[in-house]
Design goal:
It is a single chain. With 210 residues, the protein is an alpha+beta fold. It is 24% helix and 28% strand. Strands 1, 4, 5, 6, 7, 8, 9, 10 and 11 form a nine-stranded mixed sheet that branches. The chain has a two-stranded antiparallel ribbon with strand order 2-3. Strand 7 and strand 8 form a beta hairpin. The longest helix has 23 residues. The radius of gyration is 21 Å and the shape is globular. 32% of the residues are buried.
Length: 210
């Protein structure tokens, strides 16, 4: 008589979630474009981006100037919502902070970004969740340039008691009034030289600011 052994089921790997590009609400998109124009931003609408595996933007735009006289360098590709929050933050928070702390450097002339739309995972990891950069929801701010030629680079400044340190801390703190995620040099090693802002949707309007 043959021995009968209980069958052992082989664990089945969970299927990877199917990531898709979220379609834009046409009414909200039109309202966003109108707001950008009214605030003086310079931009151009782009064709739909689909780079596979959930990377892409339904209705992307390329932001050239955040406000009149303030260039985004290099120009950045993103969703309208992310562009609009960047413009609002610059107008309502960055400019007043710059005037208070760095008026001697003259007007702000450029916001220098390190990353806007790019198809990748979070923190450029090999495995894990898709980055909000891959959805057009995020932008990384590397530095600010003024008419004098002076650039304020984002770096660890928690202990910086100068007006430059105060300026960076002010624009970082106010970022959470406009963006759902704010990561600064104190967050982790991946963000030591830039501010990460994104407009990811979270339940209950929750915001993550570090």
């Amino acid at each position: 008589m043959e021995d009968t052994k209980p069958s052992v089921e082989t664990p089945q790997a969970k299927p990877e979630p199917v990531l898709t590009i979220k379609p834009e609400d046409m009414k909200e998109y039109a309202t966003c474009l109108s707001a950008l124009k009214n605030m003086g931003a310079t931009f151009r609408e782009e064709k739909r981006i689909d780079d596979g595996k959930g990377c892409g933007v339904d209705k992307p735009l390329t932001l050239e100037k955040v406000l009149p006289g303030i260039t985004l360098k290099p120009e950045g590709k993103m969703r309208c919502e992310a562009a609009l929050e960047l413009v609002r933050w610059t107008k309502d928070a960055v400019l007043p902070a710059a005037k208070a702390a760095l008026e001697s450097e003259g007007p702000l002339t450029a916001i220098n970004q390190a990353s806007s739309y790019v198809c990748r995972l979070r923190n450029n990891a090999a495995i894990g969740k898709i980055s909000e950069h891959a959805r057009g929801n995020a932008i990384d701010i590397a530095s600010f340039t003024f008419k004098s030629g002076k650039s304020i680079e984002i770096q660890p400044r928690d202990e910086d008691s100068t007006l430059t340190g105060a300026f960076q801390r002010a624009v970082t703190a106010t970022g959470c009034l406009y963006f759902e995620t704010v990561l600064d040099p104190g967050s982790d090693e991946a963000h030591e030289q830039h501010l990460h802002f994104d407009v990811i949707e979270r339940k209950g309007g929750y915001r993550y600011c570090r």
